[in-house]
Amino acid sequence: MTSPRAQLTLHSPEETCALAERLSASLRPGDVLLLSGGIGAGKTHFARCLIHALQEAPEDVPSPTFTLVQVYDTGAGELWHADLYRLSDPDQCVELGLTDAFEDAICLVEWPDRLEDLAPGNALSLDFTTDERETVRHLAMRWTDPRWDTRAGSLAA
């Protein structure tokens, strides 16, 4: 894995939400966010805030842990929120249509390690960790595609 290109400390759920809202303003179809971190690290909270920021009339955003994928219509285009925690085989991503969605939808993928070789190389990787008190979130952002240089890089400024 590449070294983080940017690192942030998020001191509250509100700071996590504010970051998601700022990033949401620049997202468009074909953008993939890979959300990593342990259970309770803040992945789903971040995803909910981002989805709400893109919805004209925010609706309930359940965790897709049991359905694997939830699809939303947003002002920026179709958004797929996938939680691959229960995925047993990466080929199931193809069956779900997730790999096609990487091309023409905004995709938020929790537990992206389950994708194995199917993870898109142009994705923005967000790795959430907690401190020992589990009140502060640390976020390491990684990317190789230049499309993220300004969009993700400005979040750390």
UniProtKB/TrEMBL annotation:
It is found in: Cytoplasm. Its main location: cytoplasm. It comes from the Bacteria. Transmembrane segments: none annotated. The keyword ATP-binding applies. It holds the Pfam family TsaE. One of its GO terms (biological process) is tRNA threonylcarbamoyladenosine modification. One of its GO terms (molecular function) is ATP binding. GO terms for cellular component: cytoplasm. The keyword Transport does not apply. Keywords: ATP-binding, Cytoplasm, Magnesium, Metal-binding, Nucleotide-binding, tRNA processing. Belongs to the TsaE family. This is tRNA threonylcarbamoyladenosine biosynthesis protein TsaE.
